[in-house]
Write a structure and sequence with these properties.
single chain; alpha+beta; six-stranded mixed β-sheet; 14 strands
Length: about 300
Amino acid sequence: MQKEIYFAGGCFWGVEHFFKGVDGVRSATPGYANGNIENPTYQQVYTDTTGFAETVKVCYNPDRISLQRLVRLYFTIIDPASLNKQGHDEGTRYRTGIFYSDASELPLLEAEMDRLRAACQEPVVVELEPLRNFYPAEEYHQNYLDKNPGGYCHLDIKAFAYLRMYQDFALIIEGETDQIARMAEAAALIQERLHFFWTGFYRVQGDQLVLGPFQGPSACLRIGYGKGVCGTAWKQARTIVVPDVEEFPGHIACSSLSRSEIVVPVLKDGQVTAVLDIDSTEVGTFDRLDAAFLELVTQLI
């Protein structure tokens, strides 16, 4: 069985390359979607007068990967609040959008869009529309980054490292019901693949966070509710990215080597049960992409 969904996420070279690496995806084809002429050329689309968006047709096996997971992976690699601009690329051809060919998928897609809007601090400008037309791009655009390994890609290279780590984690923990075991595996994989200074979990115990599985040097054993970055993420039940820990009010310095930090809450039935805490020895290490992928990881916890 095969199904299809269409993702517009800026330059289609990087988007195609990303989805080709997703387990369960059978093919990813760059092309032009939802425009107002027939058989457009790249030169025509580039003028931003045809209405087309650079789009990737993703064909997948629903027995191996769900549409929900595909959509959530798509959200990790776009800036959903950026209108007609992704990375350094600007123009209506680089707008973001999900185009569907099966109307029965609309409720799920709308639910995922609502979830994205709830999590986003700015208005979301991702289009959600039925597919009106799609034309594959010229041959030289197909598999562009395979043909040109050093070619331009607007996606951060760490997106591909996160994708491999996330998929490996999902496979490893399949069937494992113990949360501590899942945390331990997540901490080990993140540390092994991304090479951060400290990666670990703090578990909610009463009015404190208690140290759980971690990778890295010795750390604080307990953190109070609303205290430091971890306690604040617990209190606010949202991901917090701190570019410079010295500028975060009430920061708890478990190590003087920590310069930037990200904390992601682990949620169950809307309640925070733990937090994933990652520290770096460099300022400004973490951004929206880190947050998006680490939130996917915590959903598996």
